[in-house]
Design brief:
- It is a single chain.
- This protein is low in regular secondary structure.
- 6% of the residues lie in helices and 0% in strands.
- It has one helix spanning 64-67.
- The protein is elongated, with a radius of gyration of 13 Å.
- Bound molecules: zinc ion (ZN) (2 copies).
Length: 71
């Protein structure tokens, strides 16, 4: 099984550890998750989008990168 390489930090280019969720150098999120939260009307969306996606490919809500002002 090939080891999964994480993308470098979108803001500063630091190469994160596999398990990191946020950049240890600048605090930017490393996993471009959908921001749609669970609500009474929606079960929420936990899709992980491509690192260049400003909006979720599954539901159209802003992604974490978009919300953090990275895109
Ligand atoms: Zn960074
Ligand atoms: Zn979504």
């Amino acid at each position: 099984m090939a080891e999964e390489e994480k993308d470098p930090c979108i803001r500063c280019g630091h190469q994160p550890d596999k398990t990191d969720q946020y950049c240890v150098r600048c605090g930017a999120p490393l996993v471009n998750k959908c921001t749609k939260k669970k609500s009474p009307l929606h079960k929420g969306c936990s899709k992980v989008n491509r690192s260049d996606a400003a909006f979720c490919a599954s539901c159209g809500s802003p992604t974490v990168f978009r919300q953090a002002g990275l895109l």
